[in-house]
Amino acid sequence: MAKNRRDFIKISALSAAGVIFGGSYLRAVSSDKSLKNGKPLYEVPEKLLRTPTYCEVCFWKCAGWVYKTEKGAIKKIIGNDIDPACNGRLCPRGTGGVGMYNDEDRLKTPLIRTEERGKQTFREATWDEAFDYIASKLKKIKKEHGAECTALFTHGSGGKYFGKLLKAFGSYNIAAPSYAQCRGPREVGFIATFGDGLNSPEPMDMRDAKCLVLIGSHLGENMHNGQVQEMSDAIDKGASIITVDPRLSTVAAKSKYWLPIKPATDLALLLAWMHVIIYEGWYDKEYIEKYAVGFEELKEHVKPFTPEWAYGITTLKPDLIRKSAKEMANAAPSVILHPGRHVTWYGDDTQRERAIAILNALLGSWGRRGGFYRPEKAKLAKLKLPAFPKPARTWREAMGGKFELADLALANGVCDATIPSPRMDCHIKAWIVNGTNLIKTLPERQKTIEAIQSLDLLVVVDTMPMEITGWADVVLPECTYLERYDDIRVSQGREPTIALRMPAVAPKYNTKSAWWMASQLAKRLELDAWFPYETQEEELDYLLKKMGTSLEEMQRIGVKRWERAYDDIYFAPNEEVEFNTNSGKIELYSTALEEAGFDPMPKYTAHEEPAEGFYRLIYGRAPMHTFSRTANNPNLVDLMDENNVWINPKVAKEWGLKTGQYIWLENQDGIVSEFPIKVRVTERIRWDSVYMVHGFGHSNKKLSRAHGRGASDSELITRVHVDPIMGGTGMRGNFVTFRTENKKKA
Amino acid sequence: MRYAMAIDTKKCVGCSDCVVACQTENDVPVGFCRDWVVEVVDGTYPQLELEHRSERCNHCENAPCVRCCPTGASYVDDGGIVQVKKNKCIGCGACVTSCPYDARFVHPKGYVDKCTFCHHRIQKGQQPACVSVCPTKCMYFGDLDDPRSEVSMILKKRKYKTLIPEAGTKPHLYFLI
Amino acid sequence: MREEIIVSGRNNHLIDPHLEIWEWQIPMYLFLGGLAAGILFFAGLFYIRGKEKEYPTVVRMAPILVPPMLAMGLFFLFLDLKHKLYFWQLYTTIKLESPMSWGAWVLMGITPLSMMWAALHIKYLFPKWDWKFNWAIQAEAFLQKQKKWLAWAMVGLSVILGIYTGILLSAFNARPLWNTSILGPLFLTSGLSTGAAAIVLMSKNKAERHHFAKIDLGLIGVELFLIIHMFMGFRASTQVQIDAANLFLGGEFTAVFWVFVVGLGLIIPAILEIMEMRKIKVPYMVAPVLVLVGGLLFRFIMTHAGQVSRWLY
Ligand SMILES: Nc1nc2c(c(=O)[nH]1)N[C@H]1C(S)=C(S)[C@@H](COP(=O)(O)OP(=O)(O)OC[C@H]3O[C@@H](n4cnc5c(=O)[nH]c(N)nc54)[C@H](O)[C@@H]3O)O[C@H]1N2
Ligand SMILES: Nc1nc2c(c(=O)[nH]1)N[C@H]1C(S)=C(S)[C@@H](COP(=O)(O)OP(=O)(O)OC[C@H]3O[C@@H](n4cnc5c(=O)[nH]c(N)nc54)[C@H](O)[C@@H]3O)O[C@H]1N2
Ligand code: SF4
Ligand code: SF4
Ligand code: SF4
Ligand code: SF4
Ligand code: SF4
Ligand SMILES: [Mo]
Q1: pTM of the predicted model as reported, rounded to 2 decimal places
Q2: Residue of A95, A222, A273 to test ligand 2 pocket, by largest number of atoms within 8 Å of CB
């Protein structure tokens, strides 16, 4: 020490001199080597236990492992390596899923409403009280109106059990917003073309695609995990990407061709692509000849739709349209024109999806490597249950013959059918809402509220105090996915796979699983016959054993994969393929649509444009959030705590708006956003539109992190363009203007 | 041994999975992060360029944070990993100030914290948490001295840049461009 | 348009949106260190030059204030630490490349020296002082004999201390505003100047006051020269340093710096001192008080502005 110190004084005097005489200070070598090779600093508990789960933060349902300490503290959630949905990698939301469990704002106990609806005034109740209340109301409704006057809205795993309950009770009004507000039009469009929809996860062979065409689909922001991963694999293999988006989406920036289209004009582009591909002779002649009908009609139909014609509509240069078409043709058949997922945009969505399906057909990608493969699914064993009673009527009857082509129930349809009106009244008197925040999910909020106000009973099953829970008569708190079993995950893919979700820890607070809630309600409604098991473990074990495994095995491995029964993932070279269409062929000219009175081939129709001073409101996803469900998740809020409104610099200049400033948005119907939203001035958006991420602007004060943060796109979507073919709610025909002060219009 | 990380800006989508993964792996308290994602937009619509970069401590070969640390709490560990010994750190902030990348922060418990290249994982032969979770697989980690390591191979194949080379810190984080 | 944002909302405490890790404690520490260095430097120097009788305030009285000043400085440094219980780790290592380390050690060295010096002169301030214990009296007698060496050590160490207060900042390459070798001499000069000002304030002896006012004037001149040089250096350097300098040339620190630090803290006191020398009557307290306040402000501003300045990438 003494020696060191003397040295020190000597050297520091020297270095001081160094400074004075113009040098920087002396760089002596550290005398302290004793610290090297230290032990790791953060003692991560060596022994972590793991239990299998599949993620519930979105509907991709990636399988993973929950790691916890021996004391039962959840540390992290990691993807399951053998799960083809995630390949061992969860997306940010799945990784941050532990925040769903830790969120101290969670629903903690059953609640029964004490004041008027929508006011969030509840008293705490016991489970018995809550179930008795629900059962007596449901019995009364059954007696007075009929069991079919009940409906279930659901998005998420527990829906399976409430669905069974409702069907046993006598109603088939079961709707998910993931259809008519999401992927409905594409299912109908693809069914009309290929006889099959896409379902989830979409059977796209993206990792082998040589060209990937994204029409609005914003992968990378839309974090559907398997797709993001396969896109990345494709990039590694040199695939080119073509992105059509009015906004420089993240993936647009990674694309060979970005087509900065004028919003609402995609059909014109798609028709022009068809024109080029057909008239340049770039389509797959053999494939079309063998599998498709209606080619000549299509050829004639698209004759006028030249790139020059499309230029005037889409603002895309003809040369760019041709080049991008050539790019696809060069890659064919390993090319995917991605059908998108949230496709309820402008009301002609089924036809736009038809156009996408037709282009895929022209390029021969359906049933081909690097295109669309034939998915396979494990056959889920069934419980031995009595047949469900047949309801006297369903929401469909109230539609007066409209939307017959919808292959699933329309959430907005059930909602409309609930509102008493001479035209549509279905006398629906009770709703069970499980895991969907209808207030933020359905457009035309006023209608949702009107429907709710006409109900005798609204039961909401949720994990969080959301907007929808505020309208409930009874709130049933579900435990999070980390604290419960759920049904076996059976999703389609290249090969049959199943996954198990089991509780990693016991439920926090007084919360329960959907299975338990449905079983308890069944007891009180004398529907026990459909819920034969005392515990969910027994039920799962029975099902799993019938599928050749067991609960015990699945608890150990989490995911089980089987080989495909047949080697038929792609069409074999000379395979005769029977399509589920009227003609048994790919219908470029749709006879089904024609029969139902719609255009058999897609046409372009112009959509309304923003008025002076207004901008089209477009919205999308942020990679770190799922709709409104993660807006209060502490881990994910840490990544992004509010949304902002993207405004082009030209527009911002005109309005004098600056990045970081808070403004209110007002739509064409004079609706002003409840909360202000932060401006982001960015070149990434066109001058005729503004962009925001969906899922923010929560009004429920009980969400301590989410309340009042950002604005809600949903409340500004008061105008809906309903798809005449299948009833989807087109939501992008709304326009907003800016307000720097929150003066509500008189 | 010289550990390094390469991040492919052509594939990174800025999802921030690397950030949450680090938080849950390393008990980084909510409200703090050892890694973060930067987005750079350049140009005028529609002639635009966009870059996403997942950033963290660069484990600089010439690390000013280690030099300026008065107690030796900041030191260079095996493989060139720049580490902080929390029970030697007095929380003076000198190293935080000295880092041109703002890669260090004061942990609520008082000591300074930063990316460790997940030392505890790589010792066990695992990849750092952020690398192992990235959905686009755009991060590569390994030993620069081993020509067959993933990171060496990719750096041979691709063009890359480092951040603020002018600062003279010789960073060990490479961004593929 | 170019836009650069942190996507994942990084908000690391004390770092985002810009560095704010050093608040008031470090500038106070630097100020007290500089002031103490100034006083000790002059005390040692004037003793060596045999001017103890002529200038009693500088040699005998002012240094008595130094130990509490240094103690306070160290205490402020301690307050700045975020992991306080580990404070002692500072004194388990000597890291020559770390200004923080050698600063702490210089203080460790100079504090006992200053205490010894104060002890030697305590009777000057309190004539009735009694050391009470025999060993203390012996120790004093011993020190009295070594006073010359003590003085030399004080001069040496105080220069290092003064420079250190600047180097603590200039060692940080990462903050462009601090990244200049002028900071060491500049802080040393400023420390000497505040030391001289403190002596003027304390002195009851007119000649002594005049002498130190003159010294201060010279130091102010050097300081102004160094400041101008510093900005010229920045302007001729890289974009980041130009940006850093712009914080003072039109940016957010312009007014405080030029009005308070340069105007009220250097130029006005210089004018007042010149006036006094020309026998124009001004209250003698004003100039040194302004110098002291200016010196304090200077450290606050440099510490804060430095943390605002950053590399761009
Ligand atoms: N304006 C606008 N509307 C949209 C969209 C849009 O982009 N903009 N997107 C549309 C699309 S694509 C879809 S798919 C739908 C999705 O719409 P929703 O499925 O309604 O999605 P969320 O809004 O996230 O609502 C999920 C609800 O489930 C709750 N929840 C979360 N975990 C659990 C659980 O484990 N159990 C239970 N019981 N509840 C849980 C959450 O707290 C939340 O209240 O929204 C559609 N509506
Ligand atoms: N992180 C995250 N990922 C998710 C979800 C989530 O909540 N969070 N939700 C999942 C669900 S349920 C769904 S349905 C999907 C939805 O994900 P997608 O199917 O990708 O949704 P889109 O609505 O097609 O994507 C929005 C994009 O459309 C662009 N756009 C707007 N108007 C137009 C237009 O007129 N033409 C064109 N060509 N583009 C336009 C917008 O600029 C934006 O980039 O995401 C899934 N993935
Ligand atoms: S994509 Fe992400 S949020 Fe969705 S299930 Fe997979 S990990 Fe969970
Ligand atoms: S996880 Fe990967 S893709 Fe996502 S931000 Fe981090 S580096 Fe980029
Ligand atoms: S990035 Fe910063 S903290 Fe990391 S080694 Fe370099 S200077 Fe030190
Ligand atoms: S804060 Fe800790 S690690 Fe950083 S320089 Fe100070 S003692 Fe070293
Ligand atoms: S290497 Fe480990 S510590 Fe560093 S950012 Fe990645 S996960 Fe965090
Ligand atoms: Mo969706």
Answers
A1: 0.92
A2: A222
